[in-house]
Amino acid sequence: MSTATAKQSSGPVLDWAAGHGPVTGALSATTGAFAVATVGAATAMPPGWALAVGTAGALGHTVAGLRRRNAGRTLATWASSWLVGAGWTTWAMTHGPLTWTALGSLATIGVGIGAAARSTALFEEAREEETAAGLDRQISAELSSERREIAAEWVERIQRVCGITVRVLAVEQWPTGAGFSVDAELPPGGATWMKIAAESPRLSADARLPHGCTATASPGIHQGRVIIDVTTANVLEEERTYPADYGPLSLLSGIPWGFRTNAEPAVAYLREQCALVVGPTGSGKTNMVHTILAGFARAEDVLTWVIDLNAGSAGLPWVLPALNGEITGTNGPPVRPGVDWLAGTYDEAMAMLDVAVKVAKHRKMAYQDLLAKANTDLLPVSSRIPQIMLVIDEGAEILASSDRQMRKLAEKILEVIRIARAMGLRTVLTALGATGSVLGNLMIRREAKVRVALTGGETEGMDLGKMFPGSRGLRVDQAPYKGAGFMGTPESPGALFKAWRILPNQIRDIIAATSDRHPYLDDVSAKAAGPSYARRWDADRTEWMRTHQPGAPALDTEAAKGGLNLAALRDLGDGGTPAGGLPADELARKFREEIDAHFATAPDPHTPEDATAVPPRTGLNLSALRGEREQDNPAHRAALALLLSAGAEGTGASAIARALADEYGTTRQTVVGWLKSWVTDGTAVRVGEGTKARYVHQRHAPEKPAEG
User: Mean per-residue pLDDT for 388-400?
Assistant: First the structure.
């Protein structure tokens, strides 16, 4: 037996710091009085001393009770106890404390003190409870008064604006302080909540709500009731970063994607539903995709597969830090990527979708016993059998594309959506706008019931009526802020919300915090997925992630050959100033000096005809760069650098446009115009015809360029 155990079993433990109760207090008082009387009688102590001490004790206890604001009854009880005890002690010291009369009277005094103490304790408890109850009643009365004022105000407002007389049953103030909800009963005669919802803008104006605040109506507990949510503080104008709590989530309990106007989380339930997220350029759609990926990374029962044919930009921040070993987990080893699979090329996307179809079909056969045992037709999703969420950036555009390759991808995407709901494979598609081409697909309208429209104040391509059918009073100007828009789910109709702002360093933190939380693909599904899934992180399949621009010509080809280094042009910012800090004019001057030191100078088209000319195509033509310096267009300079770096093989408008799309947003039509102007002024030469045509910089052009 340990020492601690021996101490615990040695006997009862007394708490000497505890206060006295009615019994222990009375016992302490009587034994103390008996001891003082006995000692005083034996030593011939003056009896008046005991009376003086008792009087001082009564006075001190009264003062302390007044400070604690005890009741007069309590003060009188304790003062009397002190005086009675002191009187008995004085009497016993005079007549002897060891007589039966003295002992009997002392016992009687002890019982009386205990009973009085118990009575006063109960009285004080009741008094405190009554005080607290009175305070609660006062607060409740004040709140009830405020609620009654709100109810009367909105009954009058609804009658004035909507022509409907409602009866308010309850008013609930939101805990966040951003507004309140009014629960009202509709009058008989066929009035519906939709009539009030249609007048949301007029109700908001009549209530003089701040910009960004609304009064929206939704169905109540039955069809004769309506809930009116009134926002009084515009939380959408605030930029709130993604919550720093990266704790575990579950697909079954919902994934938060942002916050509503009442500051409560906006939650998406995706076990059976697909999702559609639309947002034009500049609305915060990319940030929204990262927010979605963050939620999936935190979930313990989700594997995330990402398709982004725009160089994989949506998924690279979730993959590269782990693949490059830039971050480590809590125990030191390299962490797993934040997504389970990333496809940035057409071939990889087709491979991913083929695997998804195989997994869905194989799960249907292999898990029949599990479904029968669970008595369900939905595969029980858990960390052992995770749900696969396919996030396809601009996937809605793929479905609407007329390109032959994109149509093949679209067929695979629709097949996954069609056959894989019960087996735990769902999709999140994004698009640039809520247009008829995006929402025209019946499969999307039927399966993507979780819908988000990020407006950012953009009105073009934002048909909120098609995006949220049945919702009334939704207007783009209600959400003019970046990252703000509308979100609707089967559980809640379309309403205002805003996505959290997720910062790049947060993505790295989430990858590290959730690495050991990611589930692994179950054995049944992994067997169906085969080597295409097992080797998804092989070096040859992830090489494009490190080049960042698959298929684009390298910009430093000439530097690698010991020739001219055009990296400075590549680093030019929007204002014409390169990363190194040199102004564009100074850079162009140094650039020409370097050219002159290595190559002969080509003729300038602006040079007079009688000037000394240099034989054509024996040097580098800088006239285009001079003109571009005047235009101060870094995209134009970068395109010319790409043309030069392509060498004798040349390049085309599509390749240049793809390489510049991410950084500059350059379109193919713009590049075509530049190429034509370069051919006209002699900067470039066109080689070949039709689809095989390519453009070669003058320096690398053959002596006799092909005609046309």
Answer: 88
